[in-house]
Design a protein that fits this description.
The structure is a single chain. The two termini are 28 Å apart. The strands form four sheets. The chain has a six-stranded mixed β-sheet. It has a four-stranded antiparallel β-sheet with strand order 10-11-9-12, covered by helices on one side. With 389 residues, the chain is α/β, with parallel strands linked by helices. 33% of the residues lie in helices and 22% in strands. It is elongated.
Length: 389
């Protein structure tokens, strides 16, 4: 006997209670989802990370046939550390304004909750094509889990017709996104007393030169602003997010590490920034360091890469999603999602989910109840479509 059907908001309450900040394991949440699917007689498959501390999950409801729809979402959330929350971020709180507060409500447990709440309806429906769930880990730190998830999914199910990535778009249909790369730059200097700077090399000083060069490159790239996409700011962006290094104020730093990244518009060269950084370091910056001491060094290590999404590659998925939303146009966004990864496997992909991206990563994050209702309608229309194929 299968379990009863929770509402999308009931399910969201359960999902928000799991602290799946990216630094933590997501296994408790994944096991909850797997048990829930089992209760509804839906088998699922886990795709764990290398050390088994995290896992992706995929499941299929309906016939093992081509032409199905993949509903994709990430299970991790960003930290709440240092943010001035006025409610418990791990307890779903509805206020009189009609908003549902909690970490991950908008980004993006709301969409996953709606998918899971519709499992009983999917089981009862006479689906002609399948519905696939694809839930990942570590999207927030570089879409680390989605690569293995997409490979496993594509290798184990008949070719889907489309992927819907349920990131917050206010239920608008997004068919273009930026590409993005994350890089760790490590500067290795030579320690010396700060009164004897001629004997050493400050890794921090040369890291500062590199940051200055990135700023100058950002100014140059901003001059290439494009008007053919409705994104803001409309050009490649660069950000140095974390700088670490040094041991004392009177010692030339032996090491400095920069965690930095960039985002390029769809259709632009996604490797230009990294390529130009490598050239600058090899031809100018590193020789200057080694001129001071031969043991000095600079390395760049790619931390992550998310492919972009081009509108013309996803027309089939966009057409379907617009039917289910009732919308009449598509959008482009400046951020990156797992959509580009699924598209790189040849599946038309769009982004469409409840919530406003401006709420993502914020204190007092929320999704409006009306957005959850709209997502319920969206999935309901999708189920009806799948019965008519």
């Amino acid at each position: 006997m299968t379990a009863s059907a929770p509402s999308s908001i009931d399910m969201l309450q359960r999902l928000v209670a799991f602290d799946t900040t990216s630094r933590n394991s997501n296994l408790d949440l994944i096991k909850f989802i797997q048990a829930y699917l089992t209760d509804h007689e839906v088998p699922s498959t886990l795709v764990p990370n290398e050390d088994g501390t995290k896992a992706n999950l995929f499941a299929t409801i309906g016939p093992m046939a081509e032409g199905g729809i993949v509903l994709s979402g990430h299970t991790d959330v960003v930290p709440v550390d240092g943010q001035p929350w006025t409610t418990d971020p791990w307890t779903l709180t509805e206020k009189p304004d009609g908003n549902l507060y909690g970490r991950g409500t908008c980004d993006m447990k709301g969409f996953i909750a709606a998918c899971l709440a519709h499992v009983p309806a999917l089981k009862k429906a006479r689906l002609k094509v399948p519905m696939h769930f694809a839930f990942s880990y570590d999207e927030e730190i570089g879409c680390l889990g989605a690569h293995a998830l997409a490979e496993k999914l594509v290798g184990n199910v008949p070719r889907p017709q489309a992927v819907i990535v349920g990131e917050p778009t206010m239920m608008g249909v997004v068919n273009a996104q930026n590409a993005g790369g994350g890089i760790v730059a490590t500067f290795t200097g030579v320690e010396a007393h700060s009164s004897m700077t001629h004997l050493g090399v400050s890794a921090i000083h040369f890291a500062g030169d590199f940051i200055h060069w990135l700023n100058e490159l950002q100014i140059e790239l901003a001059q290439r602003k494009r008007t053919d996409l409705d994104t803001v700011p409309g050009h490649t962006t660069i950000n140095v997010g974390i700088v670490t290094g040094g041991t004392a104020g009177n010692i030339l730093a032996r090491e400095c590490t920069l965690n930095w990244g960039y985002r390029t518009l769809p259709g632009d060269d996604p490797w230009e920034v990294q390529r130009r950084a490598e050239t600058y370091i090899a031809e100018l910056l590193l020789p200057k360091m080694k001129a001071k001491h031969p043991d000095a060094d600079i390395t760049l290590k790619r931390r992550s890469f998310v492919p972009g999404l081009l509108p013309q590659e996803n027309e089939e998925a966009a057409k379907l999603a617009l039917q289910w939303t009732g919308g009449n146009r598509t959008y482009a966004v400046p951020y990156g999602t797992e959509a580009g990864i699924f598209r790189s496997h040849g599946i038309p992909t769009v982004i469409c989910g409840p919530g406003d991206i401006s709420q993502a990563h914020q204190p007092n994050e929320f999704v409006a109840r009306s957005q959850m209702d709209a997502c319920d309608v969206f999935i309901g229309k999708m189920i009806g479509w799948a019965e008519r194929q």
